[in-house]
Amino acid sequence: MPTAELDPGEHDPAEVFRDGLALGELRYRRCRCRWCADRSAQLRLLCATCGGTEFDWERSSGRGRIYRMAEPTGGGAAGGTAVVELAEGFRMSARLVPVPAHRLWPGAPVRLEVTEDGGALRPAFRAVAA
To answer: Which domain of life is it from (predicted)?
Structure first.
């Protein structure tokens, strides 16, 4: 499924990211360089691949897989943090929504959920049935 390109104008990148979370979506930036097109949810000034300074905003499908996860901390429900590889081809560190521990493993499918932490909205991912 192709992602829709956004046109946030000259707004603060952190504000654009937060506005997306308020709408229940994960927004990420794609480098405009033709040979690079690096994607990232991190709000960098320069592209990590080519050093470019021009980006387009896109919406993620919110679907991905656990790439790597921190050690579980015991108990019947597991959560914690993980590196998630999104369907659009970039990875990001995020919190996992607590679910039964047997549903979390590297490669497990996940979907975006927006959670509130200390009054701020944060991306989190919930393991879903494969």
So the answer is: Bacteria
Written as tens digits, the pLDDT of the chain (130 aa) is 344 455 555 578 999 999 999 999 999 999 998 888 899 998 888 999 999 999 999 999 999 999 998 765 555 555 789 999 999 999 999 999 988 888 889 999 999 999 998 899 999 999 998 6
> For residues 53 and 63, what is the distance between their CA atoms, to the nearest angstrom?
27
User: From its phi and psi, is residue 29 left (phi > 0), alpha (psi between -120 and 50) or beta?
Assistant: beta
Main-chain phi, psi angles of 68, to 5 degrees: -155, 145
Instruction: State whether residue 121 is helix, strand or coil.
Output: strand
Read off the pTM.
0.82
Instruction: Return the half-sphere exposure (C-beta side, CA atoms, 13 A cut-off) of residue 120.
Output: 7
